[in-house]
Amino acid sequence: MPEAKHENLAVVKNPEIEGVLEGLERELIGLKPVKQRIREIAAYLSVDRLRRELGLSADRPTLHMAFVGPPGTGKTTVALRMATILHRLGYIRRDHLVVATRDDLVGQYIGHTAPKTKEVLKRAMGGVLFIDEAYSLYRAENERDYGQETIEILLQVMENQREDLVVILAGYKDRMEAFFALNPGMRSRIAHHIEFPPYSLEELYEIGKLMLERQGYRLAPEAEVAFREYLERRARLPNFAYARSVRNALDRFKLRQAYRLYQKAGPVTPEELMTIAAEDIYGSSVFQKEEEDAP
Description:
Blueprint: H1 15-27, H2 32-53, E1 65-68, H3 75-88, E2 97-100, H4 102-105, H5 113-124, E3 128-131, H6 147-160, E4 166-171, H7 173-182, H8 184-188, E5 192-195, H9 201-214, E6 218-219, H10 221-234, H11 243-263, H12 270-274, E7 275-276, H13 278-282, H14 285-293
Parallel strand pairs: 1-4, 1-5, 2-3, 3-4, 6-7
Helix pairs in contact: 1-2, 1-3, 5-6, 9-10, 9-11
């Protein structure tokens, strides 16, 4: 093994990478286990790069990943930051993320799938390909499903072109586990499995307030109470997607606020333009639904 000389010593910690990690801390509320894993991966890759520069190792580490957890828990945001980290450390050529789903990759008739899949791979090459709801690529109940062709192409590229593409597969934990059980070749190519925990209601409340603040809005005191009530009720309903559902809800709050101000006679103050009132939240169908369902 080559002997490291003193003049070859270098600092492992990269200020640019630290900036990305600190930005992730500010940008995402909660997700402590995820942030810790990202820090560990960044540290590992920083050390690996230094080792290779000093001739202590030659093989490029496997970088393909799986992000598992419910929708709206920050998987796409973390994938974007991971692309930046990989680019700044020299593991990919471009700070570039392509997001794809089954519809982007799988064709509807014979001869349609390969060109679709290869076109997406071409766009992602040199960066990161993020496949959301990756488990939907394989439909065991349909032997003639074209998704298997996409999987076979992905497996080849993940193995033979791993120097020029990082693939991140994402989806619900249980469905991804079933997908990997049916596709062991895919599991064997994944180096890092990161689980995204669901947000608590308190974290969702803080996420909502942060989103509003970044958009130049704030909640009136009564609206803070209403927003907490909204989250408690919405979380019990089907298709709840955590931060994604919160973002959609805020858009509707702003819509009702705008209509309320538009209907008002006379001028409005800057304070009114910035403030979401309780009535803008209580107008949600979430509250009306519970009233309709009440005995």
